[in-house]
Each structure stands twice: as structure tokens, then as C-alpha cells.
Amino acid sequence: MKLNFLLWSILVLLSILSFDIKIISLFTYVVFSISIFSTLIKPKNHLIVLPFFAFLSPIAGYQSINLLFSDYYFCFLLVHIIWMLLTKKIKLFKSQEFYILSTIFSLYVLSVVIGNLIGNLTSFKPLIYPIQFALIFIITVSFANSKKWSYIVLKSWILTVFLGSLLIINSYLNGIELINFSNNLDNRVNVNDISYLFRGSFYYAGFGFSLGIVLLCLIIKQFFLTKIYKKIIIFLLTLYCFLTLFIISNKTVFVSILLALCIFVLKYYNFFSKKTKRNLLSYLLLFSLIIPISIFFIISKFENNQILYLLVSIENLSSLSARFIIYKIALLEFISNPIGLIFGMGPDFLESASSINYKTLVSGYSEGTVDSGLISYLIELGLINFSLLIYFIYRSIKISYRASLQTLVNNDTENNISLYIFVSIIFLFFALSTQMLGYTKTSWLPFQLLLLGSLNQFNFKKKYE
Fold first, then answer.
1. How far is Cα 196 from Cα 316, in angstroms, rounded to an integer?
2. Model confidence at 291, in pLDDT bands (50, 70, 90)?
């Protein structure tokens, strides 16, 4: 993990220093080769390599036929998994999760086919997504079969988010649009001259989900640490991630973090020692006061009006009103379609459909899509598949919560991976209510967390090894 973090840190640094895209691309080939070699030697390393390619490979730009290095990696992962299955180095475990997800994936494929036949969709491109999820399922179930490797999965994503946050902060300071990676991150604007809130968007809004998960893990980790120097390090990292969150100005993530922390306190408070309870209350007060003050102090030092636009964005609730109007329009249209009601309108329908205009204007705020993961999944997947998805999420929450309680009973609070997973899934559920999360790379961490949550950490070895 340390080697991967070092190599990708160099890549991010080269990008920030505006090195030529050819140099960055060449170095990425080196990183890609080292990563592939490490997974061939030790297949479990796929769990470490995956997050870095998912979020950071775009900084090398698009390669031939508009593919990213993450696409190359997945092609290799597909071949590698097929080879390991054929040689029986890994095997598919017929667990309840396997059958639930197999049914969800099958109905997903059926939804794509029906969507193309009735004209809701115009291509079969969404069929790529269940293949990616299937590969992630196989490596997670096969290799994250201990607490140690569950932690490694989470730590790899956390380190990746740290580097992604660095790109966002740099983009904000220099007015770099991160959406178009093919321009070598050199499509700059003058932040001083624009009269709107400049967001260093990274994978659109999807990065906020991973950032929110990391922030929750850092905050909760702070409660159980005993050494002062570790507390200081975690606090500084938390401040760093909060700065990123303020920059992208994602109100849904802010509120979801607060709600998840409330659930955390309500569910676990009685299981904590007196010392932990004191730490919990003191740190909650600390975070609620020092973090916002520090963030606003840092941003106010920027020589532009962005701090004012940021405050207006946080105070403005017009976007929420617009979203609820869109939800009503979309759900009424969805209910009136019998085929869509059962099998769904098709994955990516809300992004590609031109026959239905999900747009509204409230108090000058325009909203052009169903910006809710839960409602969009319902419309695109249909009632049957959506119900299975909700059951899978519920099962993951239930099992991870029970496992976390068992760990607390054993007085192992600092290494309670199930607790972090449970609170993260709660956060995801709240965030998905008013924030869209597609089926692409930004959904891989949430999917892995759901898998780790549903695969009981205490019984996992006994059941699957």
C-alpha cells in the first residue's frame, strides 16, 4: 500500500506542477506495470490497486480510443479473474449475498434490454457496469476475508481520497476545471473575474460520497485514540478533508455526515466507557466550533469573492425545492408506465432520455435531473429490482451493526471495522436521498462497503474459507 501511495503521490504532484501530459502518461505506464506485476505476485493486491486507478488514473488523460488507465486495469482484472477461476485459485461462494446480487444483476441486464427495445435507451453501454460490479464482488469476497484486509480496503480508499482532495484544492486555488482530464488539467479560469461559485469538481458530485465516508471515519477514529500525536494527525487530516468539502460545497454531504454522527451517538453511546463518552462530547463540540472557523479563515485568505459565493450557496435552499418538484414529476411519469414500473425505465435513462423533460425553475435555480440516488434507482431499475437493492442495503446495515456491537462488548473499540462500515452505510443512505450516485467509478467504494457490511466479519472465515 505504501508503494502505491508513493507512486500515485508522485503522479498527482507532477499534475499539480503542470508537467507535460506525455511525461505524466509515461510515468502512469510505469505505475500501471508495477501495479499489474504486484497483483500477479499477490492477487489480494487488487484490493489496494483498485481505488487508486478508479479515482486518480484520469490525471494521465485519455489514451487510445478514449480509454483511461482504469479501463485498461479492468480489462486486465477481467482476464486475471477468469484465469484464477479456471485454475481454481479462487471460487465463487454461494452465499445469500451471491444470490441476491446475481438476481439484481440479471434484472439489471433485463432492464437494459427492455429499455432498448421500447426506446427508453439508445445503447447497450450500461451493460458494462454490472460486469465491473461483478469483478469487484469477486475480489472483495475472495480477498477481503479478514479484518486486516477489510481495513486495507478502507485505508486504500482513504489514501486515494486524500490525493483526490489535493487535486481539488489545487484546482480551486488555480481555477482549474477538473472535468475535462484530456486537457492536462490546464483549462484554467480566472477565479477573481467570475461572479459565481467556482467548484473544483472531481467526478462531478460523486466524489463527495467518498469524501463524506472518509470524514466520518476520521471523526470516529478521533474518539477512540489515546495518543496525543495521533489525535493531532487525525485532526489535521479531518480539517484538510473538511476544507475540500467546503470547496466543492456539497450540502447533501454536510447534512448526511451530521445525521450519520447522530445515529452513531444514539446507537453506541451506552456501550462506551466514561472516558470515551467524555471524549465524544468534547470532540463533537470541538469539531462543531473549530472546523468551521478554521475553514472560513483559510478560505477568506484567498484574494477573491469566492467566500461570499460559498456562504450564499450554503444558505440557499432553492435547489432543494427544485429537486422535490422534479421528484414529483418523475415519479408520476414513472407510475403511469406499467412496463417501467415493473422492470424499470433502464439504467442511465434519466441521463439519456429526451422524451421526458425533468426540469424546473425555482427562485432562479434550475434543476435538470432527478438528483436522488434512491429515486433514480427506483425509476431506472423498477420496483422488483429496487426492492432487492433496498433489502441488500438493509441486510448490510443489520449485519455490520450486530458485528460492531459484538466488538464493543469485547472492548475492541479502536479496531472496530464493522462500526466504521455501519456508520458509512448510514451516511450513504442519507446522502442518496437527495444526491445522485451513478453506476460508474464513484460507486465502487459504496458497493465495497455494502459487501463488507453484509459479510459478517466474525463469521466470515468460518463460512467462506
1. 13
2. low
